[in-house]
Amino acid sequence: MSNEIYRRVEADPAYQQLVQRRGRLAMLLSVTTLVAYYAFMAVVAFAPHALSPTIFEGGTLTIGAPIGAALIIGSWLLTGWYVRKANTEFDQLTHAIAERAK
After folding, report:
1. Which of 40, 59, 71, 89 could form a disulfide with 54 if both were Cys (CB 3.0 to 4.6 A apart)?
2. Three-state SS for 55?
3. Is 61 helix (H, G, I), strand (E, B) or coil?
């Protein structure tokens, strides 16, 4: 592609909106995931007794295990949400911007 097409794409207000929205969503999901993981690790490191009660009386599985599993599943769900949004809304905007730039 020529430099002229790149300049037209960068000058398109819809492109600026796309970059801003995509970046904002990526930052929000990244921060959410990192805060959740680091909070869990902080509790494990500094207050392990908070996660040590067992789920069932006389059992060996503590509440920390399902919470850890929930963090992993939650990160998968957030990734799926981003992929769905990228494949629908963001791809439509990208296609429209590319068509206008031709």
Report:
1. 59
2. coil
3. coil
Q: Flag whether pLDDT at 9 surpasses 90.
A: no
User: Residue 4 is which amino acid?
Assistant: E
Instruction: For the beta carbon of residue 25, count every other beta carbon within 10 angstroms.
Output: 16
Which residue blocks in 1-102 are alpha helix, DSSP H? 3-11, 13-46, 64-85, 91-101
As a residue count, the chain comes to: 102
The amino acid that residue 93 corresponds to is L
Taking the C-alpha atoms of residue 18 and residue 25, their distance in angstroms, rounded to an integer, is: 11
CA distance 41 to 36: 9
pTM: 0.79
Q: What is the rounded CA–CA span in Å between residue 17 and residue 96?
A: 13
Supply the pLDDT for residue 1: 52
- Count other Cβ atoms within 10 Å, centred on residue 94: 16
Residue in the block written with tokens 């929205």: 21
User: Is the distance from CB of 36 to CB of 74 less than 8 angstroms?
Assistant: yes
